[in-house]
Design a protein that fits this description.
InterPro entries: EF-hand-dom_pair, EF_Hand_1_Ca_BS, EF_hand_dom, Recoverin. By secondary structure, the protein is mainly alpha-helical. Helix content is 57%, strand content 5%. The strands form two sheets. The protein has a two-stranded antiparallel sheet with strand order 1-2. Strands 3-4 form a two-stranded antiparallel sheet.
Length: 198
């Protein structure tokens, strides 16, 4: 972000602030507030994976957040340097909280496409959905056709994999997610969708 790494980075440069205002859905005032909170929790300006997981644990204390937090961390960490900078954090937060439908779908696709090859396989989707089910809780109230990750994945693939090639392209995902919003809605961590980890 153009700043030296010291014990604590207390202020964003005007250039970085301007860039973040242009590239996110936040005002300068909001960016400054988020930055103060981020630096308070991460004085080095770097959010590490274990710290990121602890944030998820606060929201889902009875679930196992480790797998899902790891997947989300990898999407936030766009430069793959094993920590999240404030800019990476704010950009992802902007997309997931205020982004357009297409921005949210693109972000969600990036999460499900674990190996970043441009397609989502059954194995990748199963890994993400299993992690979600482990994180959020009980499947008791779910319909029988969705009460396991495998059943949910089978239903999603039957709806989205239009060419039946065993993988979902970005276009198939965007079209299908607009028809079955659960795939994207669950990524906003809405506690109305509950599931269980065996």
């Amino acid at each position: 972000m153009g700043q030296t790494r010291s014990k604590s980075i207390t202020k964003l440069s005007p250039e970085v602030l301007e860039e973040l205002e242009q590239t996110t859905h936040f005002s300068k005032k909001e960016i400054t507030r988020w930055y103060k909170d981020f630096i308070k929790d991460c004085p080095s300006g770097q959010l590490k994976q274990d710290e990121f997981q602890q944030i998820y644990e606060q929201f889902f204390p009875s679930g196992d957040v480790s797998k899902f937090a790891s997947f989300v961390f990898n999407v936030f960490d766009t430069d793959k340097n094993h920590f999240i900078t404030f800019a990476e954090f704010l950009t992802a937060l902007s997309i997931t909280s205020r982004g357009t439908v297409d921005e949210k779908l693109d972000w969600a696709f990036s999460l499900y496409d674990i190996d970043h090859d441009g397609f989502i396989t059954r194995e990748e989707m199963t890994a993400i959905i299993d992690a979600i089910y482990c994180m959020v809780g009980s499947t008791d109230e779910m319909p029988a056709d969705d009460n396991t990750p495998e059943k949910r994945v089978n239903r999603i693939f039957s709806q989205m994999d239009k060419d039946n090639d065993g993988r979902i392209s970005r276009d198939e995902f965007a079209t299908g997610a607009k028809q079955d919003s659960w795939v994207v809605k669950v990524l906003s961590l809405d506690k109305d969708d509950q599931a269980d980890c065996d």
